[in-house]
Amino acid sequence: MTVPAFRSFFRAAAAATLALSGAAHAHITLEQRAAPAGSTYKAVFRVGHGCAGSATRAVIVYLPAGVAHAHPMPKTGWALDALPTSGEATQIAWRGGPLLDAHYDEFVLRAQLPAQPGPLWWRVQQVCENGEVDWAKVPATGTDTHGVATPAALLQVLPAPNAAAAGAAPTAPVPPAAAAPAGHAGHAH
Length: 189
Known about the structure:
The protein has helices at 3-19, 163-168, 176-179; strands at residues 28-30, 34-36, 40-47, 56-62, 68-72, 78-83, 91-99, 105-112, 118-128, 132-135, 153-158. It has 189 residues and is mostly beta strands. The chain is built from 3 helices and 11 strands, in the order αβββββββββββαα.
């Protein structure tokens, strides 16, 4: 990818982050709030407190339409469920804990984002020892969540970097020995 293509992509990401800064008051948020369309995305859901003083016992993430190949990260002390059990998961649940109201934690999954750019809302259900919160509300228009009582977590899916621009500038070939450390050829991280 050329330097101008990188600059364009990162300018769009910075603009999306600024536009989403109003979502910071939400109590379950995504650590990274913008990512390119079609990319593999590491979704880090930040849980800042329990339900009205009660400890969290489950965090259930409902995968938005177009999100595929979701793989959750296990957490010590929490059981994992991915539903449905065969085929593509539509929700991922961490159950256990407890995560005390005064504590903070993160719940992580990795998934393939849709090819189309635009806002992608993630519904997250927080189940506590006493009560629960369904972080699912979406603004009637736009992406500003000010005034929304229990907003869904928002990811702004940005246009993918222009592949044509990446091929426009010639690059020097990488010698085979420098391309990947021994034993790591062909492995994606």
